[in-house]
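Hi, here's the filled form for the chain we discussed.

Project: internal
Contact: R.S.
Residues: 307
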Amino acid sequence: MSNRITIPGLGTNGHAYLFLTCTMLFWGCNAVFSRLAVGEVSPLTLVTLRWAVVISMVFVIARKNVKRDWPKLKPRLGYFMIMGATGFTGFNAMFYIAAHSTTALNIGIIQGAMPVIVLLGSFILFRTPVTISQMLGVAVTLIGVAVVTSAGSLDTLLSLSFNDGDILILIAALVYGVYTIALRFKPDVSALSFFAVLAFAAFLTCLPLLAYEIYSGQAQMPTPTGWALILAIAILPSFLAQLLFINGVTLIGPGRAGIFINLVPIFAAILAVLFLSEDFEIYHGAALVLVLGGIWLAERGKKAGAS
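And the returned structure, exactly as it came back:
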């Protein structure tokens, strides 16, 4: 892809690892932001306004890129609408709605299914090679996710119950897994141009959802704190994270990139300690070791040239 983000001294893998780790850190921030946003702004209003802010930023930053790449972008507008509606609008809408009706424990465990969805989807659709070490790495990272989200308690895991919010999170995980795999088909344009058009598509597909929320009487305009959170969400998990994720997937492929998603609940737990005054326990450290070890195993087991 042209105009790829580059940092001197880092190879392809180094760039990908840095981009994807930063992405997961920013998505971990989103988990904290979503908890803080409860009572400050309604879910679909939040999703719509976050993309309104993002497209305002990309209009200033990406105009020249989009104009240059428009001949390649225009024939793929249908693709962009589908990608924006699924990976950006659909996933986030389901995430914020589900957060009101299920526990953080359940959300963390179910989100851990995303790397598995991406790895299996890549294998089924494209016959991307999957080694035993990669499968072991996925299993180890899932154990890490289970440890952090269950607070290290087997009894907590065994006593899980599932509700509509859990089902919604599972659907969201499936949707984002499909989005990640479909990044393979993106046009050969700069990451900034690609993201700019996706963000605009996301905003357009948010509007019917916002209209429904208003019509149903469930809309809540942001409080001053809500506006601050919308701005933070627009900059970190929306703008920077998505741009870095697109670059990371481009460099090492969706199957390998997907495993990094298991870092999200780890970062979310650490950020909760720092910003929500939650306690850091031994199981947080154990989970971090498991997740990072699983990623190492998966990367060590990749076949030469596989993506």
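Let me know if anything looks off before we file it.
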